[in-house]
């Protein structure tokens, strides 16, 4: 290790570092879109690891024109326990450090440090600094380790000199686009183990599936435990996401059936490739009991938090009971790795009409082991069916026929490619759609109350189906 690197580690591991940043993070973190602990008090921070990617100048070297430093932190945030939420989450922070902050970076300011090793310096979100963002790509171009960070890439070289910009459409993570050639997703809330958004695209690439952009490079933490921190993939320039395309079709009064059918075929291709690349265990009685019990547990937790859900609980529970009953009668289903959070916003259509699926992280609110476990493929299908309903209900007047045609066309396209019609397993499909709608109710109640009527309409329909 060089003398410069040794100096970096000395500052990064200072016991005074996190206490000096704590008051600033306490104010800044809850305002970030990707912070999962909104509505709960922060009681403490604890440092997992700290690495200086670009050295922070010491007090003797600070001048008004000094360049920025880049400090990588993994920080545990301690909060009171709530149902279905952990008391401690780990977050990845990339902090820029400067003596003074240029006006162009003022919106990214976290605060001014008054004590500790960074006293007198300004700390900000380093992703918004083009110089620091370019440095991240440079690290990915040349694989290796720095402190507890490990940078790796595939066989293809990555060109240099690509201008970075922050993509302001993410919610649970942050993304940087480099020269309209690559997109780097940086996971903010991180979990032990390999993130599916790296694992599954690598597996699909190995199977030759072109429906998912293959990872170009990635970086990870190696200690005290393995964590996936970021993934670089090709940026599909000119592609449009399925959600915006669907809303455009609704606004124009145009049928979306052909697009939905093509999306069904794309989903089936991805499922087929995942089944070929990774294990496909069968779900028997014990596994279906566990599956239904998890759905019921989420229903009860959501009803506890959202009173509007309570009258529908008996009808919704019947969907989960039907899955349990089939398992007890000897029924079973194939399970495999799936997308885990599939909806129109996770799809892109290129200028040539080719559909791609993106963002294989799964539902960020669920534990990583659950997101990495094999699931019935209808889980993804249910998510897309709910998305068509969301799109239709976001348009006025509500176009029930449009949604129904999209749902049917999507299942038709899936069946054409997979050879299995998801509607042939109505109990399992209904249970997963119910589970998804319950998740949506809880999410909307917490984050977008004005949208709550959208999933509640589905709750009314699904509960009535049991009567």
The percentage of residues in β strands lies in 15-25%
Strand order of the largest sheet: 6-7-12-13-10-9-8
Instruction: State the separation between the terminal residues, measured CA to CA.
Output: 69 Å
In DSSP terms (H or I, runs of 4 or more residues), the helix count works out at 13
Report mean pLDDT, rounded to a whole number: 91
Task: Describe the structure in brief.
Helix content is 40%, strand content 19%. The chain has a 7-stranded antiparallel sheet. Strands 1, 2, 3, 4, 5 and 11 form a 6-stranded antiparallel sheet that branches. It has a 3-stranded antiparallel sheet with strand order 14-17-18. With 467 residues, the chain is of the alpha+beta class.
List keywords for this structure.
Aminoglycoside 3'-phosphotransferase, Chain: A, domain 2; 467 residues; 2 domains; 13 helices; single chain; 18 strands; 40% helix; seven-stranded antiparallel sheet; alpha+beta
What does this structure look like?
- There is one protein chain.
- By secondary structure, this protein is α+β, with helices and mostly antiparallel strands.
- It has 2 domains: 3-234, no CATH class; 240-464, Aminoglycoside 3'-phosphotransferase, Chain: A, domain 2 (Alpha-Beta Complex), CATH 3.90.1200.
- Helices cover 40% and strands 19% of the residues.
- It contains 13 helices and 18 strands.
- The protein has helices at residues 3-12, 17-28, 130-141, 196-206, 242-251, 257-277, 285-305, 313-328, 368-371, 378-393, 400-418, 426-447, 453-464, and strands at residues 44-54, 69-78, 88-98, 109-112, 122-125, 144-146, 149-153, 164-167, 173-178, 182-187, 189-190, 217-221, 227-234, 240-241, 282-283, 333-334, 347-349, 355-357.
- The strands form 4 sheets. A 7-stranded antiparallel beta sheet has the order 6-7-12-13-10-9-8. Strands 1, 2, 3, 4, 5 and 11 form a 6-stranded antiparallel beta sheet that branches. A 3-stranded antiparallel beta sheet has the order 14-17-18.
- Helix 8 crosses helix 13 (453-464).
- The longest helix has 22 residues, at 426-447.
- 41% of the residues are buried.
- Residues 1-9 and 58-65 have low confidence and may be disordered.
